[in-house]
Specification:
single chain, alpha+beta, Spore Coat Polysaccharide Biosynthesis Protein SpsA, Chain A, 2 domains, three-stranded mixed β-sheet, two-stranded antiparallel ribbon, 6 helices, binds zinc ion
């Protein structure tokens, strides 16, 4: 993190195959501050002050701008983003760390957000802090293995909660056209007679959606 203040403690935990949740937890246990930031190694602050993310009784994320829509999208478009979040230590003491039953990756962040909500802890996006994210690439490289983990952890999640989170980012095209939209702020966002899919379309993505995404103005078209 380029703009990390010098009086801020920084711990780097390397994921050497032990899994995402377990590694984050290792860092959370070592960190000693009143607020703890979890930041992916593929993220960096481009604007704002990370200290603005420190809010009492609230878990915050900055405005995250990803390179490719659909890759590692926000879990909560106006709130928590798994690639960069800040939690007060008191909140972690109350709700606990990430659940390590979610092996490798996926759903451990959904589970964390569900536990925050169950404990009435607010999540918030602080748009004055902007973070760039080139993430999801590790997962893309893993290919089918990542899909196996996704399926496996979905089962763990469903057994724990009795429901599964719906995708936060949906691609939608009008029934009679082949342009895919993903931003509800797009002037051409299809309101009726449309087709939805969760997979990232390889081509025919809307240019207006893209420019809204790049500007950080995209309101992701998740499930209704
Ligand atoms: Zn569009």
């Amino acid at each position: 993190m380029a703009s990390l203040p010098h009086d801020c403690e920084k711990l780097v935990v390397v994921n050497d195959g032990t899994g995402f949740g377990r590694n984050v937890n290792r860092g959370l246990r070592l960190a000693s501050g009143d607020y703890v930031a979890v930041a992916g190694n593929d993220t960096w602050v481009v604007e704002g002050d990370v200290y603005d993310l420190c809010l009492p009784q609230t878990v915050t994320s900055p405005l995250v701008i990803g390179d490719t829509p659909g890759i590692a999208p926000a879990l909560e478009p106006e709130g928590f983003h798994g690639c960069f979040w800040v939690a007060p230590r008191s909140v972690l003491d109350r709700v606990g760390l990430l659940d390590e039953r979610f092996e490798h990756a996926f759903y451990e962040d959904d589970d964390f957000v569900a536990r925050l909500h169950a404990s009435d802890i607010a999540t918030r996006q602080i748009r004055s802090v902007r973070v760039r994210h080139v993430g999801g690439l590790t997962m893309l490289k893993l290919g089918t293995r990542a899909r196996d983990w996704l399926a496996q952890n979905e089962v763990v999640f469903r057994e724990k909660w009795g429901w599964t989170p719906s995708p936060t980012l949906v691609f939608r095209r009008p029934a009679q056209k082949d342009t895919w939209h993903y931003c509800r702020n797009c002037s051409a966002w299809p309101a009726e007679e449309y087709v939805d899919q969760a997979e990232i379309p390889s081509d025919n993505q809307c240019e207006e959606c893209r420019s809204l995404w790049d500007a950080g103005e995209c309101r992701q078209g998740g499930a209704d």
